[in-house]
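Q: How would the structure tokens look for this protein?
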Amino acid sequence: QVQLVESGGGLVQSGGSLRLTCVASGVTASIYGMAWYRQAPGSERELVALIAPNSNTNYLDSVKGRFNISRNKARNIWYLQMNSLTPEDTAVYYCDARTSVRDYWGQGTQVTVTQ
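A: Here is the predicted structure in token form.
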């Protein structure tokens, strides 16, 4: 019912910036919240940023002040602006659309931060 396509990953040096984009199609009116997760090799997937229906946001402690989640007015595109990147941010990043039935996931995009 919902399909997500994400983009914007890549290779960047420490201190650099990237912006990830997630575009939703299908029954997008069913989406009530949007989020970004990441998963490093050998690690569990962790929530990085969340934007709720009331537009409140929550962030992983280690990215507070560096990352920002936002969305368009129609609430079918959302972004993760990542600044002051460090090698510890290296992971596959996934966008997540939350509905009353289930979560939908993007295909993942690799972010690699070098020294």
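The two ends are 41 Å apart (CA to CA).

The longest strand covers residues 18-26.

Upvote if useful.
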